[in-house]
Amino acid sequence: MRQAVADPRVDSLLLPEERLVAVVRHHWLRYLPGTLQVAAALALGTWWLLVTDVEAAWVPFAAMVGVAGHGCYRLLREHLDRFVVTSTRVFRVSGVFDQRTASMPISRVLDVTVRKPLAGRLLGYGHLVLEAAAPEQGLRDITSVPHPDRLDQLIQSTRLRAERRRRRGPRRRAASPLYLRRQRVP
After folding, report:
1. Which of 74, 82, 114, 136 could form a disulfide with 34 if both were Cys (CB 3.0 to 4.6 A apart)?
2. What is this structure's pTM?
3. Residue 112 shares a structural domain with residue 141
C-alpha cells in the first residue's frame, strides 16, 4: 500500500513485541504560525500582483511562492513531529527531508514534569520534561502537547505495567486443555 509523504510511518518503527499505546501530535497552536504565513503570503502576493506592472509581476510572484513555500515547510515540520508511547519505550519521530528518531526505554523514565504556562492552561496544552536515568537524553523536552496531564498519567501507568511485567519474569504459556487431553494414556 502506498503511503503519503506527510505520514511519519510510526508503525514501521515498532519492534515485533511492542504494543502501540499513544501517538501524540503537537497542539493546534503550533500550526498557527505556518498557516498565517501561507495565508499572508497568498493575500499580499495576490494584491501585489494586481497593483504591479505586468513586466515586473514575476518579482511578487516569486516572493509569494517563496514565502508560502516556507510556510508549508513549517506546517509539514510540525505535522511530522510525533511523540510515541509504546509498551516498552517512548520515542520521538521528526524531520521533513530526513527522519530522526530519539528513543528511550520506558523503564528509564524516572520522572515526568508537566509544565503548563498560562496560555497553555487556557488553551489546553503543556510541555513535558522527561527525567531519565542517563544524564543526557535526546528526548528530554516534549513541547506543546495537548492534554499533558493525561499523557503524564499514560506514561506513568505504562511504566508501572512494564515494571510489573519485568518483576514477574517471562510468561509461561499454559498448556491448552486440548493438548492435555491428547496426552492421556488409555
Report:
1. 74
2. 0.78
3. yes
Is 82:10 a contact under the CB 8 Å cutoff?
A: yes
Distance (Å, whole) CA 110 – CA 131: 6
Q: Which helix (H) or strand (E) holds 127?
A: strand 125-132
* Cβ burial, residue 85 (10 Å; 0-12/13-18/19+): buried
Considering its fold, how many domains does the chain have in total? 2
Amino acid 110: pLDDT: 87
Task: Report how far apart, in Å, the C-alpha atoms of 70 and of each of 13, 39, 78, 150 are.
Answer: 28, 12, 13, 33
Cα(first)–Cα(last) distance of the chain, in Å? 53
SS3 state of residue 99 = coil
CATH code, domain carrying 145 = 2.30.29.30
pLDDT one-digit tens code per residue, 139-161? 888 999 999 999 999 999 999 98
CB neighbourhood size of 155 (10 A) = 21
